[in-house]
Amino acid sequence: MDDDLSVSAGGTAADRAERLTRSMRDQSFPNLKPRDSATLILVDRSSDVPKVLLGRRHQRHRFLPGKFVFPGGRIEPADRLIAAAAALHEQHARKLMQRMRRPSLAKAAAFALAAVRETYEETGIMVGMRSDKAVSVMPGPWQAFAKADIAPDLSTIHFIARAITPPRRPLRFDSRFFTADVSAIARRDDGFVGPDKELVELVWLPITQARELDMPGITAVVLEELQDRIAAGMSDDHPVPLYRMLHKRFAREIL
């Protein structure tokens, strides 16, 4: 899930970390270990200006109330147990395993799978492919995919950024940001978004217009990273940045 920084959009890759540093907020809370999380940005590239999907969080939420965010959340144990229809591209898996405790392909895949699962739980959108064989899962959050005979397809997913909430914030996450094209959507279910749900509305907006919404600063920065990747033809070799605080300043490192 996104950090709660606020920062104006625009500028080059070189100044993104500096803009995050300038906008840093209160760091007087007890320090916490960051929790692993994963986020998925769905992109529609059928028009000249690509559109992205964002959801507005409920005002009653403790974390990021009323902000526009990408679907996402924490990693669950079940995310290591679901079998994908196709694996992550080796470049994305390799970058996910960098600076990971006890790295493995299964753990790398679990981040992408968590992003797919959270997207369904928050929006009703399933990313994957229909399977001729029954999709076997343990009881739990992946049951809806099994009932629909849809298996997650990780070959369609790109790892585009990682960000770690600075120390001494009230909540901390070590977030991996992924993207997938709308062509990877296998099913859409209703009833997941509304006034009593985690997301009260969903919007598809041109990527340049989306940055004008009320969103966390890291969300705006990752949108810029996504624009760079789209401009580079969605290459699997495109650099993946890691944003984290070092010596009281944000740094943008390449994985």
Describe the structure.
The protein is an alpha+beta fold. It has a single domain, classed as Nucleoside Triphosphate Pyrophosphohydrolase, CATH 3.90.79. The protein is 23% helix and 27% strand. The chain contains six helices and 13 strands. It has helices spanning 16-22, 90-97, 105-123, 143-147, 207-210, 217-231, and strands spanning 35-44, 51-57, 68-69, 72-74, 125-127, 129-130, 150-151, 157-164, 173-181, 185-188, 199-206, 241-246, 249-254. The strands form three sheets. Strands 1, 2, 3, 4, 8, 9, 11, 12 and 13 form a nine-stranded mixed β-sheet that branches. Strands 5-10 form a two-stranded antiparallel ribbon. The protein has a two-stranded antiparallel ribbon with strand order 6-7. Strand 1 and strand 2 (51-57) form a beta hairpin. Helix 2 crosses helix 3 (105-123). The radius of gyration is 17 Å and the shape is globular. 40% of the residues are buried. Mean pLDDT is 89; it is low at 1-9.
Please report the number of helical segments. 6
- What is the arithmetic mean of pLDDT? 89
Stretches where pLDDT falls below 50 for ≥5 residues?
1-9
Indicate the CATH class.
Answer: Alpha Beta
Q: Return Rg in Å.
A: 17 Å
User: β content, as a range?
Assistant: 25-35%
Structural class: alpha+beta
Helical percentage: 10-25%
SSE order, as H and E? HEEEEHHEEHEEEEEHHEE
Q: Which fold name is given in CATH as the topology?
A: Nucleoside Triphosphate Pyrophosphohydrolase
Q: How many β-strands, per DSSP?
A: 13
Quote the distance from N terminus to C terminus.
20 Å
Major sheet: 9 strands, mixed
CATH H-level name... which superfamily?
Nucleoside Triphosphate Pyrophosphohydrolase
Oligomeric state: single chain
Which of globular, elongated, flat, extended, rod-shaped describes the shape? Answer: globular
Give the count of structural domains: 1
CATH architecture: Alpha-Beta Complex
